[in-house]
Amino acid sequence: MRAFTCEVCEQLLFFENSSCLRCGTSQGFDPERLALVDASERTRCAAANVAQCNWLLAPDDSQRFCSSCRLTRTRPNDGDAGGLVEFAKAEAAKRRLLFTLLDLGLPIDRGDLHFDLLSSRAQPIVTGHDDGLITLDLAESDDVRREARRAQLDEPYRTLLGHFRHEIGHYYWPMLVERVGESELERFRALFGDERVSYEESLEHHYAQGPPDGWRDRYVSAYATMHPWEDWAESFSHYLHIRDTLQTAAEFGLDVGGPAVTGDPLLSATPLPELGGAPFRELIESWLPLTYALNALNRSMGHDDLYPFTLAPAVIEKLGYVHQRVTAHSS
Fold first, then answer.
1. Distance in angstroms (rounded) separating the CA atoms of residues 216 and 183
2. pLDDT in tens, 149-173
């Protein structure tokens, strides 16, 4: 995420701000400029209250909702007070997701991307993706319920933003891989496996048997072992984690030096030139020492690791492939 400043007084602003705390200037996010701007003469999204949305409409836009909120097809009704609180948190995470996608040059306005943000207080909801429709259980907005679910599934990491990043990975797979051509599919299969194997049987096997022994040598998460599509979505999600966090660190001038910055064995053992080349290697060379430092800082405060992952060479190679596909599409 970029660091923003008030155009009037140059006070530091954050992505979610709707006003400057120093000078009081009204602020809004302009998705065309990817910037916070003076909103005093601009039209705010009609969901400014219910979704706590600070996005602005383009000057010639006659619609009521911004380019983020109009992607939401279904939300809790106005009488569901608890659901609406969770909905606002989910929309905030969705806006952060969309910023990263726009910043990477990936399309969000093709007309086939929609979100159903539903409360499981009334009925069971399964988070997932189906042909451009992303469904999210708003229970993931509740910290207590989400942590209980994370512990139940023995996951090292579980966040609302992470769910969005995973499901959007499914949305982009046909665009970035499948429809590119048979040669691209073969490259994908060489790294992730054959996506033509039965998804239903793979799902049943995964929940009956769990991940295979030694999965950490080849996968970024246990869930990624379930099927090549899930491996792609988990890798895509992780790539967005890396890009957003590195951008934030750079915007605030964080450049980690010290031990283990150069000559990391994870990189020396990873073949990258044909899967993203030098630019991706530079990303990983910045990412690994940053994660070491962040984890050390968390431990100094008595907390668990902020970044509870170990990226094996095979995982780094998959991330390099995601990088290559994203940059090829957006260039």
1. 28
2. 777 777 777 899 999 999 999 999 9
How far is 315 from 217, CA to CA, in rounded Å? 8
pLDDT digits (tens, 9 = 90+) for 243-284: 999 999 999 998 887 665 555 555 555 555 444 556 788 888
The answer to whether 258 touches 305, Cβ cutoff 8 Å, is: no
Contacts of 82 (CB under 8 A, 6+ apart): 119, 121
Exposure letters 165-180 (e unless 16+ CB within 10 A, then b): bbbbbbbbbeebbeeb
Cβ neighbours of residue 125 under 8 Å, at least 6 residues apart? Answer: 118, 119, 135, 136, 137, 138, 139
Note whether 207 and 173 are within 8 A (CB): no
| Cα 307 to Cα 295: distance, rounded to the nearest angstrom | 6
Going by the DSSP 8-state scheme, the letter that residue 173 receives in this structure is H
Report in angstroms the alpha-carbon separations of 165 from 8, 41, 289: 34, 33, 23
The position carrying tokens 């769910």 is 163
Average the pLDDT over 168-191 and give the result. 97
Count of CA atoms in the C-beta half-sphere (13 A) of 325: 25
Could you tell me the sign of the dihedral formed by the alpha carbons of 271, 272, 273, 278, in that order?
negative
Give 293-305 pLDDT, tens digit per residue.
999 999 999 999 9
Q: Which residues pair with 4 in a beta bridge?
A: 13
Closest by Cα among 70, 101, 86, 81 to 169: 101
Q: Is the pTM of this model over 0.70?
A: yes
Q: How far apart are CA 79 and CA 94, in angstroms?
A: 23
